[in-house]
Amino acid sequence: MGEAEEVSWRRSYVRTVPALLARLRTRINRLVKERRKCRRKIKTIAGRLLRDFKRNAGSCGELLYAEELALIERVLRQKRHDKNKVYSLHDPQVLCIAKGKGHKKYEFGRKASVTMLRDSGVIVSAVSFKENLYDGDTLEPALEQASSMTGKSFESVLVDKGYRGRKNVRGTEVVIPGKISKKLSAYHRRKQRKRNGRRRRSSQSSATLRVTIAWLGAS
After folding, report:
1. Is 162 or 92 the better-scoring residue by pLDDT?
2. What are the tens digits of pLDDT across the range 28-41?
3. What are the start and end residues of every segment in region (Disordered) (predicted)?
4. d(Cα 46, Cα 44) in Å, to the nearest integer?
């Protein structure tokens, strides 16, 4: 923005900021206080450059880059325990999603729900959500889209344990893999293991998209 508006900076910090970022990348425990100090310094420099830009660009520059300036100000104001924080400047809609796992507590991205047919594996719906919803709340819009795409209703949907708390959605039974009863015959136990194993293998996620997959059984 500054180069486009030909802003004359009081100081550009072209050497200071890369040096501070290099210190932040160190993972030595004894440098924790130094990394905290570097983060505060970078935040201070960003505030200085923001005020410098506003002084030099004038009202026209502020109107032209109002959205970008508002985003930067929001990042500078936010605290550690604030809600609805900005985690990425290039994609402010990124959310912090708690996974509930010890080795990887959080991931950053957006949540989506994908449904597949039980026998063929054909994807019949894919819904993305702006909010970090509980997995059970993503099932109804996913089933609604699947019904509208196929023109069919579904008697059951096989999901993982993240959907606990939902036993029936829109007349569709919600099946969550669990312990297989020993009262069943060997054939039925083998059939249940095969069905449940399909759901365990289908869970996937990426850096920008958290995907929850459900398998549908047609009625």
Report:
1. 92
2. 767 788 888 999 99
3. 187-206
4. 5
